[in-house]
């Protein structure tokens, strides 16, 4: 993959942003790759030398890396830090690097994962299942490497957009910039089954490439806005066309002065995907107004 510098940053900025410790061995699959769309996996494998990414697109990931590096540099009591585990499953090397593994009582270890995230990640909990899958894989790898890792884990959420003023005025808002979120993990059998299913899905995708699903695309819902003719703002935004029609009919004789505007839910993941120049699904979605 080619890394570009369209904004002409100095060399030292480029070298910092493009630094990468990822293992690109085609027989090695990381926990995050394992969880990702089969289409992205296949497109990267098939078009790696054609793809490019600009250094500006790497800035956000460097924030996360800096946070993890700061944790790694501190000697935390009774903890194993930033260690990469590996195991072999179905001919593949499965690998994962956890942030912290705390020795709770000399018999069991507890995983702690550090996440740089928005406050809304806590309020809406939209990534809880993704976190659960990731840490369950780390737990499985730890146990395969001789550690008794428990089913209870913590997510240490460090908020990038936390506001002291909002915390003061809203008791439901996170009261500190750091929040510890408990997480229940999968047992070994469920995790191993999931890993094998994902390996199979990724390998099948190399033969018959599937489209990314709505969930994988991080797509917004399609909504239907009821608008009065000649106005820009919606009177009401509905989740279905049927709901919008019923609401519109409620205006009675004035109904003819209102119309329904369909607002297609756009795929947010495509905004961050380096594969979109070689992705036919993206090109079609862009033509249909479903991707930027």
Question: What do you see in this structure?
Answer:
- With 292 residues, the protein is of the alpha/beta class.
- It folds into two domains: 2-207, Lambda Exonuclease, Chain A; 223-287, no CATH class.
- 36% of the residues lie in helices and 24% in strands.
- The protein has helices spanning 11-18, 31-35, 38-47, 59-73, 119-124, 128-144, 164-169, 188-207, 241-249, 280-287; strands at residues 2-4, 28-30, 52-54, 79-81, 84-89, 92-97, 100-103, 109-117, 149-159, 178-184, 223-228, 236-238, 258-263.
- A five-stranded mixed sheet has the order 4-7-8-9-10.
- A hairpin with a 5-residue loop joins strand 7 (100-103) and strand 8 (109-117).
- Helix 3 packs across helix 8 and helix 6 packs across helix 8 (188-207).
- The longest helix is centred in the C-terminal third of the chain and has 20 residues, at 188-207.
- The radius of gyration is 23 Å and the shape is globular.
Which labels suit this protein?
292 residues; alpha/beta; five-stranded mixed beta sheet; 13 strands
Please tell me how large the radius of gyration is: 23 Å
Instruction: Using the 3D structure, state the CATH architecture of the largest domain.
Output: Alpha-Beta Complex
CATH first level of the largest domain:
Alpha Beta
Judged by helices, strands and strand pairing, the structural class is alpha/beta
- What name does CATH use for the topology of the largest domain? Lambda Exonuclease, Chain A
* Largest beta sheet: strand ordering: 4-7-8-9-10
- Outline type: globular
Q: Which range best describes the helical content: under 10%, 10-25%, 25-40%, 40-55%, 55-70% or over 70%?
A: 25-40%
N-C termini distance = 22 Å
Oligomer: single chain
Total number of beta strands: 13
Q: H/E series, N to C?
A: EHEHHEHEEEEEHHEHEHEEHEH
Mean pLDDT: 91
Number of H- or I-type helical stretches: 10
Strand content: 15-25%
Number of structurally distinct domains: 2
Low-confidence residue ranges: none
Biggest pleated-sheet summary: 5 strands, mixed
């Amino acid at each position: 993959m080619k890394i570009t510098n369209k904004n002409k940053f100095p060399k030292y900025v480029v070298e910092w942003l493009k630094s990468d410790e990822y293992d690109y061995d085609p027989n090695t699959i990381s926990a995050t790759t394992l969880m990702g769309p089969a289409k992205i996996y296949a497109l990267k494998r098939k078009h790696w030398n054609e793809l490019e990414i600009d250094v500006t697109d790497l800035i956000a990931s460097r924030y996360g890396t800096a946070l993890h590096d700061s944790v790694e540099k501190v000697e935390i009591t009774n903890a194993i830090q930033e260690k990469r585990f590996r195991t072999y499953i179905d001919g593949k090397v499965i690998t994962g690097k956890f942030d912290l593994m705390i020795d709770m009582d000399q018999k069991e270890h507890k995983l702690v994962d550090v996440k740089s995230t928005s406050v809304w990640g806590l309020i809406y909990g939209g990534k809880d299942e993704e976190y659960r899958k990731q840490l369950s894989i780390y737990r499985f790898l730890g146990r395969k490497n001789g550690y008794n890792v428990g089913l209870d884990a913590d997510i240490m959420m460090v908020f990038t957009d936390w506001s002291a003023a909002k915390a003061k005025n809203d008791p439901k808002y996170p009261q500190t910039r750091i929040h510890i979120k408990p997480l229940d993990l999968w047992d070994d059998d469920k995790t191993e089954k999931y890993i094998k299913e994902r390996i199979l899905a990724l390998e099948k995708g190399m033969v018959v490439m599937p489209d990314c699903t709505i969930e994988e695309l991080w797509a917004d819902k399609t909504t239907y806005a009821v608008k009065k003719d000649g106005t820009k703002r919606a009177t009401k935004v509905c989740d279905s066309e049927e709901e919008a029609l019923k609401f519109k009919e409620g205006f009675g004789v004035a109904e003819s002065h209102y119309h329904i505007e369909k607002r297609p839910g756009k795929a947010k993941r495509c905004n961050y995907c380096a594969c979109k120049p070689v992705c036919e699904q993206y090109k079609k979605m862009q033509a249909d107004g479903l991707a930027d």
